[in-house]
Every structure is written in structure tokens, then in C-alpha cells.
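Hi team,

Below is the intake form for Homoserine dehydrogenase from Luteimonas composti. Please confirm the fields before the structure is written into the shared record.

FORM ID: S-0412
PROTEIN: Homoserine dehydrogenase
ORGANISM: Luteimonas composti
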Amino acid sequence: MSTVTPLRPAAPPRTGRVALLGTGVVGSAVVERYRQLRVRGVPLPPFAWLSNSRVQVAAGDCLETAIAQARSAPRSGGPVPPWAEGESLARGDIVIDATASDTVAGWHPEWLLRGIHVVTANKLGNGGDLARAQAIVEAQREGARYGDSATVGAGLPLLRLIRELVAGGDRIHAVEGVLSGSLAWLLSRYDDTRPFSDLVREARDAGYAEPDPRQDLSGEDVRRKLLILARASGLPLEAREIRVSSLVPDALRDAAPEAVDAQLAALDAPLRERFLNAYRNDARLCFVGRFDAERGASVGLRALPLSHPLASGHGTDNRAAIFSDRYSDQPLVVQGPGAGARVTAAALLDDVLRIWTAR
Ligand SMILES: NC(=O)C1=CN([C@@H]2O[C@H](COP(=O)(O)OP(=O)(O)OC[C@H]3O[C@@H](n4cnc5c(N)ncnc54)[C@H](OP(=O)(O)O)[C@@H]3O)[C@@H](O)[C@H]2O)C=CC1
Ligand SMILES: N[C@@H](CC=O)C(=O)O
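The structure came back. Fields below:
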């Protein structure tokens, strides 16, 4: 009997487990999508544990039980997050950051240096402090990978596209776009028949808004996304270099977290006035972020003519135009849903699979 020679050597068994930080809107959707993919037979790294700010729970045989246990854990208020004291991560593991925590983002470079891959929806890794963003780039030289698709456009192929253009030698001149899914949704819904603040509550309950909706309404969330895009384009912008026009009145800005809901009505009168002005001029309100290698960067509300390319999205649509050497007269435009737990969870697990199957 002749022996059969394999055309390719057998792939070494894949190693590495996945761990999840954050069991809120996005973290819960990650668990649900992981379950669906497993039912469909998609090969996935084993789940080690999940954690929120209160408790770390081993995934065990039933992920659904583990997340239910984590979500119902009492608040302890200890100074050290549970995952920092509990079962630790090993080289080759993949940690998913589905928090909005600056403390967790501060760990990104440290994990990468230890050979632990990081996949994140949290924009405070490469969309906050420039030194941290640069440390994340440096740390990847050790071999671990950073999956940040979910941080801009909830996984729309915008960030990836910019990196591919840059890798191909293109120079990015400017990016301009509607980069907030929640604000896109709010401004496409608002027609002065209901108070703007009611819609903000709806956007929060639908999972489009940040844990603190003031991050969206102040333009801070868009500033972070713009920093991520600019840095990926080779422009080492600092947060303070972006001019941001906030929609948040002082009373709401200064409210304690538990008083935010009661203060949302402070948004209503100024927004109504901006809306009516735009309406009278056949314009539509859009919250736009732009960076330009020559002319700087800004974030704020604009009244755009109805025919303007950025004024045509629906629902949570993000719409971004990239101007580069190659796309100088007509920009390259990317459009699609830019917020929501399901698309964000899909982007996170896409990154996990990209990293896990690349080995
Ligand atoms: N919603 C969307 O469309 C998108 C969201 N994102 C990003 O996803 C992230 C998560 O958002 P969302 O799910 O809405 O937020 P939630 O507030 O619903 O959940 C946040 C989770 O993070 C946990 N957490 C906070 N601090 C820590 C810590 N130190 N260690 C471990 N866990 C911690 C919280 O724990 P606890 O439950 O104990 O409070 C909570 O479980 C944000 O960074 C957001 O910007 C990105 C793209 C799109
Ligand atoms: N709050 C964000 C969610 C995605 O990043 C948004 O509104 O776009």
C-alpha cells in the first residue's frame, strides 16, 4: 500500500483562550454571538473567563450561566478590579475589552508586551492619550496583535481601509464624516414632535449611546474616533488639537452621574432652535468630525444642505469620506450602521477570529 504524502504539513494545533472584560450591552452581545457561532460550527478559541468591575467568573461549560452570574453579582467597590487578582492571562490568550474603562485601556500595552492579544471596543486605548496609543503600537513589535475594528464605525471597514491605503504608499489628506451612530440616529429622528431628551433616552436604551450619553453629546466619542483615524493615517494628533463644539449645556455637563437623566431636558431648547434654523434653510443637522493634514481637526454640529453627501444616511449610519493622493477629486466613501451591540460584537469576534486563525 502506498503512503499518501500530505500536500501541506498539518497546521499546529491552535492555542490561546479568550477572556472578556465587560458584561454590559456590548459584552452580553459578544457572549450571544459566540454562542451562535459555536452552534453554527465555527471553530472558536475556548472561553476562559469573563469579568465586570465586580466579579470574575470562570466560563465553565455554560457561558450563559457564567454571564448571568457576573451580571447579577453585588457591587463590592474594592480598589482592585477582580480580573487583576483572579485567574490571569497567559501568552497567546486573547482579551476582549468591552468596557469604557480608562483603567482597563491602561493595561493594553502591558498585555501586548506579555504576548497577550487585545481586541477592543474601548476607544481609550488608541483614541485617548497619544503616549498610550504609541505604546500600543510599540508593544505589538513583540508579536501580540491589537484588534481595534470595533472602535470606529462599530466595525465598518473604515479603519482597515485607511491602514491598507497607507500600507500601499497612499498619503491621507483628510477624513470627514458622520462618526457617531447615536447622534446620527438622534438627528435623523428628531423632527420637533417630541423633545430631543426623550430620543436620547431611547438611543441609550437601544444600546447606541455610550454608558454615559454625555460622551456622545459632548463630541468626546467622535473626538476619540477621529484621533484613531488620524493616527492610523500617520498623523500623531493629540486630543487637545481637535476643536470640539459640545451639545451639552453646563447644567448637564456638571451633573453627577445619577442626575444625568433628570438634566437631559436642558438639551431640548437649544437643539430645537438649531433644528428650526436648519429646517427653514432646507438643511439637515449632522454631527461631523474632520481632520485635515493641513488645516487641523474639528468636531461639531453642522447644518448641511440636503444634497450634501454627508446628509444622506439613515438610522445609525456612519458615513465617512477619505481624501488621499489616490482619491483626491472624488473621495472614497464608506457608509453603514455605526452603532449597536450586535454589529459591535460581530466586529470584536471578527478580530478574535482573525488573530486566532492567523497562527
Ligand atoms: N454601543 C455601541 O454601539 C458601541 C460601543 N462601543 C464601546 O463598547 C464599550 C462598552 O460599551 P457598553 O457595553 O455600552 O457599556 P456598559 O456600560 O453597558 O458595560 C460596561 C461594562 O464594563 C464593565 N467595567 C467597567 N469597568 C471595569 C473594569 N475596571 N474591569 C472590568 N469591567 C469593567 C462594567 O462592569 P459593571 O457591570 O460591574 O459596571 C460593565 O459590565 C464602550 O467602550 C463603548 O464605547 C464601541 C462601539 C460601538
Ligand atoms: N456611542 C457610540 C457607539 C459606537 O462607538 C456612537 O454613538 O457611535
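SUMMARY LINE: The chain has two domains: 18-156+342-357, 158-337.

Thanks, M.
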